[in-house]
């Protein structure tokens, strides 16, 4: 039998662990050991428990937004090949998807611009993505990723532009060149 050690915790956390244990049909001892074991597993994988839980939350958010994971390089190349073959069809498809995302956040969020911006930031994981307020009701959205192909850059800019149009923004400037997107938008 293993030795036991006493650990101290804030009262509200200890109460929450006790509630969790009861909910799971376990003892507090078993629940604390399980929590500690998972925290150690996360650390052994180069994460702290907060990062592991945050990543799990990101995966759930992605699933809820209808996203799927794929090989990044292959994805950009496939989009680029389709863009070269039929530019207008690809722009229309990405514009439609941008409108859908804009409507999703407009109807399901109390702060649709903030939440859409966060979602696009999530979509561009690994890119330099920024959305900042300018003069008056202006908003500048930029995204830089050296891995984006020319076609992907153009259709992704179309997607972003359409999503913000649903939220009442018109485009003042749209600069998209391989790997670089810069949109200057203003509230209509």
What can you tell me about this protein's structure?
The protein is α+β, with helices and mostly antiparallel strands and 188 residues long. The protein has two domains: 11-61; 70-187, Muramoyl-pentapeptide Carboxypeptidase, domain 2. Helix content is 60%, strand content 16%. It has helices spanning 11-24, 28-44, 49-64, 72-85, 87-108, 112-123, 150-166, and strands spanning 128-133, 138-144, 169-177, 180-187. Strands 1-2-4-3 form a four-stranded antiparallel beta sheet, covered by helices on one side. The longest helix is centred in the middle third of the chain and has 22 residues, at 87-108. It is elongated and about 70 Å long. The chain starts with 10 loop residues before the first helix and ends with a strand.
Shape: elongated
Beta-strand percent range: 15-25%
The total count of helices amounts to 7
Strand order of the largest sheet: 1-2-4-3
Low-confidence stretches: none
CATH topology of the largest domain: Muramoyl-pentapeptide Carboxypeptidase, domain 2
**Tally of distinct domains:** 2
Q: Secondary-structure map with pairings?
A:
Elements lengths: L10 H14 L3 H17 L4 H16 L7 H14 L1 H22 L3 H12 L4 E6 L4 E7 L5 H17 L2 E9 L2 E8 L1
Helix pairs in contact: 1-2, 4-5, 4-7, 5-6, 5-7
